[in-house]
Task: structure prediction
Amino acid sequence: MGTLLEGHIAVVTGAGSGIGRAIAKGYAAEGAKVMVADINAAGASETAAMIADDGGTSVDSALDVTDRSSCAALANKVMAELGPASVLVNNAGIVRRAPISAQGADQDWDDIMNVNATGVYNVTKAFLDPLRENKGRIVNIGSIQSFVHTGNAAAYTVAKHGVLGFTRALAAELGPDGIRVNAIGPGLIRTPLNAENRANTDMEARFVAQTPLRRAGEAEDIAGPAIFLASDMSGFVTGAYVPVDGGYLTL
Ligand code: NAP
Result:
């Protein structure tokens, strides 16, 4: 066990799977007490059980980031069961790929914007008081699509560009309160989010061919940078976007 996040109370959304799970486990392994929150309550409990097995401390909870009352309830639960949050990771997200004229595109647009963009706002708002109290750290999970686009994903691209904009805007607004706000931009990471797409298309091969490190990422690849941005090691870093994409954006 490390000590980089000793004394911290960290909230990770979408922590019942993939990248969120890896970050939650990584934070707990560095000494943070972690709130594992996900719309998939069973996934969240599974992550909490993994953390306990590893000797860490966490509480799990159901959370729908699109529902402001659910976000407020989570903030109350964190305060009651762990104390004032000092780290927030806005990680929960969904993806759906289809052309803009496809049937269902309107629903996809609404859902993706609600979860991936408005959800980040909702959870951040709910935790502002404890984050101010603790001079906290916010880590938003963007994407390579915060800068570029990949096929048939207009809504996702808009939402992830928005996450980057929100990160910069809040870094400026909350910096005087001592809150640091940064983003991580994963490349292709092998998680349940894209499992079907990877299985049924040559998407992974195309990404890898365009990735200087010549591999796809694993969820654990995101944990280290997320620990860095939450810890005192990044004490003068705010408003930054940390690409964790094997170099994809350099080409
Ligand atoms: P994942 O394995 O599907 O995990 C995302 C988790 O968020 C799931 O447990 C999901 O639950 C949950 N979630 C969905 N809607 C939610 C809501 N309304 N409220 C709370 N939780 C919700 O995906 P991942 O790959 O780890 O993705 C995590 C983040 O990384 C996302 O923001 C994604 O956009 C971003 N990202 C991923 C990649 C990649 O290649 N994997 C690349 C760039 C960025 P359900 O399973 O029930 O939907």
